[in-house]
Amino acid sequence: MIAITKRGLSLLLLGLLHVVVPATAIYESQAGTFDWHHTWVGHPHEAVKIDNDHIAVYTEKNIIASLNTHSGAVEWRQILENELDHFVATDAGILTVSSLPERAQFWNQTNGQLIWEYTLSESEIFGAAKPIAWDNGESVVSIGNTKLVKLSKEGEELWSWTRESTGDSMNESIQVLQRGNDIYVVVEPIEDSKSPVFAVNILDSATGETTKTVQIPCHANYDHVAYVGNYIFWTEANLLKWSSIDKKDVKSILLKTLVDSLPTADKFDPTQINILGDSDDANTKSFILSAQFETDEGSEVASVLVNIEEKALVLSTYFGSQTTFGGLDFYESSLIRSVRSSSNEFTTSILPQGKDITIQQDFSLSGEINYVKLIHLEPLALFVVTEGSSVLFYNESGLVWSREESLSNIAATEFLELPEPKMWTQMVDELDETVSEQANENPLSRYIRRLTTHVLETRKFPGWIISHIIGMSGSTLKDEENAVSTLEAQSCWLNQSKPEMLYRDNFGLRKLLISATKSGKIVAQDTSRNGKIIWSRYVDSFSFTNVYVVRAAAVKLPPVIVAIGDTYDDVGGQATGFLRINALTGENYISTSPESLEFFEPVVATNIGTDKIMRLPIEDPEERTHMLAIYEAGSGRVYIYPDSFAAREKFAAEFLPNFYFSHQNKHGNLQGFKVVEGYRGSLKVLPVWEFKLPEGENALTMSKAQVNEKVASIGRALGNRNVLYKYLNPHMFALITRGSAKGVMKVRIMDSVKGSILYETVHTQVDTETNEVHVIQSENWFVYHFWSNSAQPMGYQTVVLELFEGENENERVKSSNFSSFDNIQPHVLSSAFAFPYPVTTMGVTETRNGISTKNILFGLPTHQIMGVNKRMFDPRRPKEKPSKEDQEEMLIPYGPIPDEKRLFLTYGLDVAGVKSIISSPSLLESTALVFASGLDTFFTRSSPSKQFDVLSEDFSKAQLLLTITGLIVGIWVTGPIVRRKRVNALWK
After folding, report:
1. CB proximity list for 784: less than 8 A, separation 6 or greater
2. How far apart are the first and last CA of the chain?
3. Which one, out of 349, 429, 745, 859, has a CA that is 20 to 30 A from the CA of 282?
4. Is 772 exposed, middle or buried (0-12, 13-18, 19+ CB in 10 A)?
5. What is the pLDDT, as a whole number, of residue 583?
6. Are 714 and 805 in contact (CB under 8 A)?
7. What pTM did the predictor assign?
8. Burial class (CB in 10 A: 0-12, 13-18, 19+), 984
9. Domain layout of the chain by residue ranges
10. Which residues does 317 contact at the CB level (< 8 Å), separation at least 6?
């Protein structure tokens, strides 16, 4: 007889767990077939040429990357952990200086690998002065505003220099410039200095010794300091002054005298000017003087090129005034300026050559030019970045490639169902009519017209047969006709053709992804064509925060979305903007009802506070769009959008009597309200309940119910055929807080209608200071993730809470209708599981009818997305040997969540910075669509219960067709024989 120890039994159960764990792995041949991944770098701040084939950029996302100049592909990228302050590229590599923590790093420009790293002590910080780097790999960085350190190509200190400190040293700023073999350290005096001077220390770059000191006198009220070539410029009241940085030789001119010959001379206010020149090239002898001023139409910028002669400043090219300045760059001895010349083009001026190049660009799609970099002068290669985060690369023939980097900064995304083709057939056939035409239409003529349309449709029948026969050898779920490369899908939409009309496929796998970005763009992507952009919109002065689908596609009515963002009102104050858009074309949606046209303006800006925005489950009767409710906490008022007479009447009759909601303020306290009608039909809130956090507690996170979630069953069938009935409360949510005592975390399940606490638990020894807490909610359960410092076990944990109507089996609430005001306390089952990874965000799959089991999706800081079947987070998983009833219920033995790579939806992809994961059902109950965004964007399909409602990829449809055909032929051949035999048998 073989004895099995407890340890052996545990290992056996763990081995069985790895066998039965539901996996979401795919075959190698399926990678990239149904999913797509777009690699982004963010909005570039600066670009530098590496070689003829590559440029290096650093972006607002603290990323340095190398882009291919021929295609725009990301060759490599490095995502820095801390804030990037400085970026300098040379032939030897790329130097970056970042803060919090203070770190200087040198990178290989060919492959992006780290060569060396130089760090500071906790008491030191890097200075604001731009570092210097040489082609031999050596560099100079500033520490604070008193010290310079030269580093070797291995990152070791060669020398350090510290200037004499004074009482004002901590407040003074310095600039570090390289001129030949010398380093110039210019100390700018503080305001109200008793003896203000620009102190210039000239150092030998080889030894760090001071070779010369120059003091350039100035007035205490100096302003607008700029460094151009070997000169320093500044203003004093109405004077523009300048001097060589290596000698005391101050010259000045009245600003009014300098610009007196310009048409906009009166606009050059000394307080509003800007001096733009190249501080890196000692041979620079010109700069641009610009001034910003206000007109009746808005803000404009006037600018002029100024040449520096021996003892005077001479005006050169006058650029006139434009609404924006555009972009400026310096290339060897040339100055390059690109500025919008019309709504559809911009002009790049190359000076002093006097060459102007006009390039076509639709600025309504991209926003104004934000940055330009000339990569080559002959032949022309120009790198352009716009305010809407569109990245474009031009040559003299036009656009070479583009990247829609606004998608690296998504604020909100929604899936949009596409219309069925038959809907649009009907619309073209008979519904494109006015009300009077419909009333006067003869029924016979209408029938004849429809019959004619259907007869004409039969012309497509042969093609339909041929396409289906050809399609038998391919995948049922893959659209191979519309294949698009990843680089093409990442390109900006240029509005060179009208957006194509999209239709839903047979399985509902093709949808539109509508993303609203913080850079003011709204982008629509086709999920079935590698995420190709179908249309995009840029809205000036908008930073979007939310997007809502308020009307799905219907007969004669296109889908409508409402994008909401922060903007400015007519006088420049903070406002909230609402934008109504036709989701199929990206154009402003104009109401088709004359009676409600004034209430359906496509763009609306309001100064009311938008502390909470709610999409209501009722539609306005005129446009059939869902209403939005906006809560303003300061006034305690609620507004509905749109606020037409018909919409308000329906809202008051059908929804107002039972309109309850809750709101969490900035301190984490919760309050519940009922909306009532006030003076003259206004809507106000009445407090129903309030939950204040105990002293010392801080809110960490709060869950939200899944929108439009379908629940297939109201109970859970057990192995003994009994049922545990789910506690399905649409108003419950989880509030997780940090306790007053160290290491304490509290979890409360609450009802948002009456504010009652349905369940409360406390976790101790939890690290909530350095590790984030995340929670997801669906149906009757919650799953949350945190770090535990407890000894058994220390590490990441996930806890599941599952709520049922009663503690006993078959126990159910007697009432047929659920009400939050009923005194029902749910029974909660809970269990904790060790989890192998930290988490950045959580999501859950959603299927058409909620029959399939769910996958809980985890965004990982390792740039992966992990999908774990809900069965793994079952609080009823047996901790002992599973009984027959447990086996009947298919319960998995208790154990930690396995570190199994097959659970990664992203397989080997590097999906960086995932901050949001959303899901949408397809028409296949087995399949959910998943989209993740953050830095990168990733789309895939998830089938937690396998694809039980579709034929497998290796199923031979041709063999099935041949079998059916053979049976038909066999019946046709043998049928007469059998009949003759029967007749002959009757004659015998």
Report:
1. 734, 736, 747, 773, 774, 775, 776, 798, 799
2. 75
3. 349
4. middle
5. 93
6. no
7. 0.90
8. exposed
9. 1-30+838-952, 609-692, 695-813+821-835
10. 304, 305, 349, 351, 354
